[in-house]
């Protein structure tokens, strides 16, 4: 299954989820409805709801609750993006102007809160496992916030270690990937073994997915995002960490000082390329992809399972 | 019971709730812990958790769940204040610098999200009625966000009507007051009649409370908040709406145009005072106070009930 086939599979299967998202976010406050449309049509990869559907499918059935938790995961994700845009002062996302840019930071904060509440309302409308879903989504909301806070704190000091980075990408990305898969499995009344297998798959896929994003920030991709944005935002990510591992302590200190001082982006970019930081990061990413695929072993063969494998392989080579 | 006696009652009974708030918000991320301390010690009136405890008490018992929902209400309230400070660009709250001012807007957004998640976690740790609490808190989070969004939208056009204003203060204040009382009653396994009575009390108290805040914005109080802040933020509130009702359509249009143009704060303040807007607003407030007290009729006499009556009377005359 290549990228185009995956995209076709997603848009075919996610139609009901997208409709549910629209219904959930509808409001009689005009400003809200207008923004909902802008953001819902803006797209994105919809990888989280896809994980939910595929996980339910791999466990044998897709229920009305599956669609609800899938839509809730995507709404929660987009709510936190509205907040992250304020944090990063981002005017562009997915090649389009953000709510920050179209309206202002206050609107982005408040619409984010409104969406969080609506995601919760959707979860509370499920027929079974409601408390379990609520627990999982609350935990991941905390992870998302704590990950961004840690990143913010580290960006001020430029002292991110490998362990910090792993914690940040767990919180920022892998946590909600895992919850998307786990809630999908639960919605199909899966056994704890199957649920854990899909959770482990999605956790590793999430780590790999974020490392790929961080690589694309150094290499540029097809998405129209400017190269080196993370460097400008003083975020130390895997390519730089991998490059730093290749040199002695003194050179490490020098580079971190350049990074902290700011204005040396080109020099740091050249250092990362020269020390093979990108290919090292790609190696780590591929090891997570293998772990993700390996985690699926307990699941019986099925179409959804083979799509999950394709999704993991595609995540390793994607260019946007 | 006067203000000092109410304050003493609150600090005596809220000790356990404050401890629970601290425990709930503790984190191994240094930045978070430091901010938690700043905000927890900052105080505020703690009126929402007090409503929870008094509502439980008026229904005959205070359980461990009472303290949990009381702490969750206060954490949720403070989380949304962190977001409101970003929306309003507020550097001062309760006479002290905000997280916005001490750190920055991104920290205020993210710490708010973290607190929302922790409030939810606390609610999920209750022994009974957990789903009902979760529903009530999710609904009020949506109200809080929608109220601020409506206020933001109206502040751009300066066309707030009396109905808009009532909806805004319901969402901004009365909704969480009502939820604080309802969850308190539920935690004491109260009957639907008792729960509704306390909900109606707190709803009316919340409306009165917000109108008092809006009056104090015109009059100034003892809290160190500058007079006319709402006017500067282009918020049309009860004193101005009441003054506008005293004049003809043409004069109404003139005043709204001055308001929309900005820079005429002193003229508008003089108009409100001249037309008796403040005393009219106080009359409306007092009618809500009477409705609040009347709502308590189904409850048997008890110390908590009489404190609820005192709290309502105090809300009518408070100067901060």
Task: Please give a quick description of this structure.
With 320 residues, the first copy, chain A, is an all-alpha fold.
Secondary-structure element string of chain A: HHHHHEEHHHHHHHHHHH
Instruction: Report low-confidence residues of chain A grouped into runs of 5 or more.
Output: none
Task: Tell me the strand percentage band of chain A.
Answer: under 5%
Structural class of chain A: mainly alpha
| CATH homology group of chain A | Farnesyl Diphosphate Synthase
Describe the structure.
- Chain A has 320 residues and is mostly helical.
- Chain A has a single domain, classed as Farnesyl Diphosphate Synthase (Orthogonal Bundle).
- Chain A has 16 helices and two strands.
- Chain A has helices spanning 3-13, 15-25, 30-42, 47-58, 64-88, 99-102, 105-124, 130-157, 162-187, 192-219, 229-232, 238-244, 249-261, 265-274, 277-295, 303-317, and strands at 92-93, 96-97.
- Chain A has a two-stranded antiparallel sheet with strand order 1-2.
- In chain A, helix 2 runs antiparallel to helix 3 (30-42), helix 4 packs across helix 9 and helix 5 (64-88) packs antiparallel against helix 9 (162-187).
- The two termini of chain A are 17 Å apart.
- Chains A and B meet through helix 3, helix 5, helix 7 and helix 8 of A and helix 3, helix 5, helix 7 and helix 8 of B.
Q: How would you describe this structure in keywords?
A:
homodimer; 320 residues; mainly alpha; Farnesyl Diphosphate Synthase
